[in-house]
Design goal:
Blueprint lengths: L1 H17 L42 E5 L15 E2 L1 E5 L12 E7 L11 E2 L5 E4 L2 E6 L4 E7 L3 E7 L3 E9 L5 E7 L2 E6 L12 E7 L5 E5 L18 E5 L3 E8 L4 E9 L3 H12 L4 H16 L2 E4 L3 H14 L4 E2 L2 E2 L5 E4 L6 E3 L3 E2 L1 E2 H4 L3 H8 L1 H18 L5 E2 L12 H10 L5 H14 L15 H7 L11 H21 L3 H10 L7 E2 L4 E2 L26 H4 L7 H8 L2 H13 L14 H8 L25 H15 L15 H11 L1 E2 L7 E4 L6 E5 L5 E5 L9 E7 L2 E2 L4 E3 H4 L3 E8 L6
Parallel strand pairs: 31-35
Antiparallel strand pairs: 1-3, 2-5, 3-4, 4-10, 6-7, 7-8, 8-9, 9-17, 10-16, 11-12, 11-15, 12-13, 13-17, 14-16, 18-30, 19-23, 20-21, 21-22, 24-25, 26-27, 28-29, 29-34, 30-31, 32-33, 32-35
The protein binds calcium ion (CA).
């Protein structure tokens, strides 16, 4: 607690110096808005997030639910009514949810199903914090509050004077159960999921109220059940089970009477749900749970202190850091002996050890995992142990997990995630060999039911050196480029482990990106089996040979050999000109591959940055490539443009899908002044720090101090940079230097530095 206070005071001092008009915000969690990115819809994503109230990497998140049961857009900022507070595990609307159920306080005997129980609400009577959410449900005259632990939560409902007060527990359809355990306790399970689970998948929940029920209702057909028609005595042994089980518990309440509900769940068993409840909530009251949750957020967010910027920038920074520390989520629980144990979403068994889930590596390999390796390595050590378990339990590393293997995106970028952690010494020693075997194994096979796991087209890639355009495997240029980078990552691990033969083979394969480079257009282009390039060809065509992007976006996916790519283009000047062109060419597009304009295209168009598409992941490292071309001032210019124009701590605050921390971690790194262009490498490319001062508190007790005393909106260019007082000629920093603590000083100025 003491440490947090010191930090809080430091932040308070910074805040009142920089923005006295805002008053003293004292804790990093107070800068976060969880509503950032929630004003999204199918056609245009401003983040596609929901206001997750959860602990960092917590097993269960909660969200207010505006959408209908099953709707991936669970909470949309423009909606007027809420249907419940939903326990959710959803990583993205496109992947949807699993193990979800909802709790909704109501007034009125006729309020049970999700249509009749919905209530108007206003953002003016809503508080959305990482550690706390509250809302006034106008049609019921009830205030609902929720505050989380990792696997449990406390809810508090403030009721009006009514003999018709109640709480609906909706276990959702597709197979569920509710049961009255005693006159204050409801238990049950939901099986709802969106794929990627064994047949025995269940999320067991238990809910204990602090006030006895006056009556209960149970149904397995809420659509045809007449609410209020079958009031039962609140006794144990009553249950409903079927397609869609719902319980409603009734209370008679005084005006302002508060009723709390203690809720926990488990993917393992009903008994484990009770254990999670008792372990995590104990005898804590609502305020204690809330203050512990806030302290945990302050500890995690406070690992990076920033000052010397506007309050808006602080809000954006900490809202992005919050999103960067939610996923992947814990999918393990703690057994009676205090050891980690997990229900395997791969084989349905309950097994010892760690498991995390709900991330797509196509997105998050780029900078979310590098952020974990730098700032939160102990968390990534558990994630890596979980990946080794995934390999043992399924024979594959995941590419998209939620909770088991899901078919989504391309590449074999688990190799990047696994390699970067091994190379940075984060991975538990006992898992390194297994993970190396897993990476090698994944090069030459495809998951039998999830074709985006493993390497689709590996037969071609491993013989021709590319996945051909005309053999019926889509997004073949994207696959080739990512496989080549992934091979480079595995090569680094092979070298570290002394597997010299493997390393040589993989190093060679890492050059396969050259095979889809077309010298005529200076772009990456689909290549037929006979060696000819695809025709016709449009650099503006999305999809087809690429994944959610076009040739302008994917040509840069040579993270590991930027100089080699520049050579192919005819040298650094030509390379730089090609980068310039991305921002200069008009935002025209060809969407014929999809048959309609996908939201990522629209997000590129509306940003007014030409064909630069920051709203999707393939482009997100691109700006930093100017550093490799000897044009760091252009990187500095564009990094600031993107931070200033495309990120805001408000409901429409992202420029596309946030994607489980990746797009947020871009801002976190960029605001600190550097970015991991090539995970697996020791190097960070330098951009333009946003704040005058930042301190990263490393887990080893060391600190990275980042000083930019002359920083301002006008002074976006780096004149000189030094590390521990030593002038740096090149715009790069090294992990191996920073990890032991360092002071990085940027001399900021209004004009680009002379070359
Ligand atoms: Ca995306």
């Amino acid at each position: 607690m003491k440490k947090i206070w010191i930090l809080a005071c430091a932040l308070a001092a910074a805040a009142c110096c920089e923005a006295p008009q805002e008053g003293a915000q004292t804790r990093p969690s107070e800068y976060v808005t969880t509503l950032m990115g929630t004003q999204s819809e199918f056609a245009l994503s401003t983040g596609n997030t929901y206001p997750a109230v959860a602990l960092p990497w917590g097993m269960n998140f909660w969200t207010p639910q505006t959408g209908r049961m099953g709707d991936g857009w669970a909470y949309t900022y423009n909606a007027h009514t809420l249907r419940g507070l939903k326990q959710t595990h959803q990583p993205s609307p496109w992947i949807n949810d699993y193990g979800q159920f909802a709790v909704m306080p109501v007034r009125g005997t006729d309020k049970l199903d999700e249509e009749s129980r919905q209530s108007w609400f206003s953002h003016q009577a809503e508080m959305a914090k990482p550690y706390y959410y509250s809302v006034y449900l106008a049609d019921h005259d009830i205030v609902a509050e929720v505050t989380p632990t990792e696997r449990a939560a406390m809810m508090r409902f403030t009721f009006p004077e009514s003999r018709e007060s109640g709480v609906v527990i909706d276990a959702f359809d597709r197979g569920s159960r509710v049961e009255i355990l005693d006159d204050r306790t409801v238990a049950g399970y939901t099986t709802r999921n969106s794929g990627g689970v064994p047949d025995n998948f269940r999320n067991w929940f238990v809910i204990r109220f602090d006030k006895p029920f006056s009556a209960v209702e149970l149904t397995d057909k809420p659509s045809s059940y007449k609410a209020g028609s079958q009031l039962l005595k609140p006794e144990g042994g009553k249950s409903a089970e079927g397609n869609h089980a719902v319980a409603k518990v009734h209370f008679t309440t005084r005006r302002g009477e508060q009723v709390t509900a203690r809720i926990a769940s488990s993917f393992i068993s009903a008994e484990q749900a009770v254990r999670n409840l008792e372990t995590e909530l104990g005898t804590d009251d609502f305020e204690t749970v809330k203050s512990k949750a806030q302290a945990r957020w302050d500890e995690v967010l406070g690992r990076i202190e920033v000052s010397g910027g506007s309050v808006d920038q602080l809000r954006t920074f900490y809202s992005c850091l919050y999103r960067s520390t939610l996923f992947p989520r814990k999918f393990y629980e703690i057994d009676a002996e205090g050891n980690p144990v997990h229900y395997s979403p791969y084989n349905g068994e309950v097994l010892p050890g760690y498991m995390y889930t709900d991330t797509g590596f196509w997105d998050t390999f780029r900078c979310l995992f590098p952020l974990l390796n730098l700032v939160y390595p102990s968390v990534n050590a558990e994630i890596q142990a979980g990946l080794a378990n995934t390999w043992r339990e399924s024979g594959f590393l995941p590419e998209w997990a939620s909770p088991g293997h899901r078919g989504c995106m391309v590449g074999n970028n688990s190799a990047s995630v696994v390699s970067d952690a091994i190379l940075k010494g984060v991975t538990p020693a006992e898992d390194v060999e297994a993970l190396y075997e897993a990476m090698l194994s994944g090069r030459t096979k495809v998951h039998p039911t999830v074709s985006s796991t493993g390497r689709l087209g590996h037969e071609y890639y491993n013989t021709l050196g590319y996945v051909p355009y005309n053999v019926g495997i889509n997004e073949n240029v994207a696959r080739t480029l990512e496989y080549a980078y992934d091979d480079w990552c595995i090569a680094r691990v092979a070298a570290k482990l002394g597997r010299t033969e493997d390393a040589a083979m993989l190093e060679k394969a890492a050059q396969n990106y050259r095979n889809v480079f077309d010298a005529e257009t200076n772009l990456m282009r689909g290549r037929n089996k006979d060696g000819s390039f695809q025709t016709p060809f449009s650099a503006y065509k999305w999809g087809d040979a690429y994944t959610e992007g076009n040739a302008w976006h994917y040509t840069w996916s040579v993270f590991h050999d930027v100089e080699g790519l520049a050579d192919l283009m005819g040298g650094k000047a030509e390379f730089s000109k090609m980068l310039d062109s991305v921002f200069v060419v008009p935002p025209i597009y060809d969407d014929s591959y999809y048959g309609a304009r996908i939201h990522e295209i629209t997000e590129m168009q509306v940003a007014n940055m030409g064909n630069y598409a920051h709203g999707n992941q393939p482009a997100q490292h691109m700006i930093y490539l100017y550093d490799y071309a000897g044009e760091p001032a252009k990187a500095q210019y564009w990094v600031r443009e993107v931070m200033n124009r495309l990120y805001k701590a408000q409901p429409d605050g992202y420029c596309g899908d946030e994607d489980n921390g990746q797009t947020s971690a871009w801002y976190v790194f960029s605001a600190l002044g550097f970015y991991p262009v090539c995970p697996g490498a020791d190097e960070y490319a330098v951009g333009a720090p946003l704040f005058r001062r930042a301190t990263i508190h490393l887990e080893n007790g060391q600190k990275i101090e980042i000083e930019a005393p002359a920083n301002s909106p006008a002074n976006r260019y780096v004149g000189k940079m030094s590390v521990d007082g030593k002038a740096q000629a090149e715009p790069f920093l090294r992990y191996s230097v920073l990890k032991d603590g360092a002071t990085v000083r940027f001399d900021m100025q209004a004009e680009p530095a002379a070359k």
